[in-house]
Amino acid sequence: MEKIVEQGILFDFYGPLLTKHQQEICSAALYEDLSLAEIAEQYGITRQGVHDLLKRCDHILRDYEEKLGLVEQYRVQNEGLARIRTILQGAVSESGVLQMDPDKTTELMRQLEQLTGTLEE
Predict the structure, then answer these.
(1) pTM for this one?
(2) Got the DSSP string for the chain?
(3) Which residue, 18, 58, 81, 110, has most beta carbons within 10 Å?
């Protein structure tokens, strides 16, 4: 299951860089959950051809991630934003007033600096 999710995320980020035919086959396999036989019948190719194309696309998408790192950067940014959200939620009083002690302010600034550094890379 985890591999399918990972492939879907890679396809979401880098799918537009594939050929139209590759995009259609990958989409059918990932999002329509069609079997190799169903895809082969729909596109008039062999099951082995579908299998090979999906393997090739997986390799291409992983290669893009290795070179560009957009998925990893997105993950790091989301983690940083979640930490910032947690800090801010902990600093809001019941009356809705933001009350941060110096330690929380320092932590918030550190998280923002890390996030900003990630965005600039």
Answers:
(1) 0.78
(2) -HHHHHHHHHHHHHGGGS-HHHHHHHHHHHTS---HHHHHHHHT--HHHHHHHHHHHHHHHHHHHHHH-HHHHHHHHHHHHHHHHHHHHHHB-TTS-B---HHHHHHHHHHHHHHHHHHH-
(3) 18
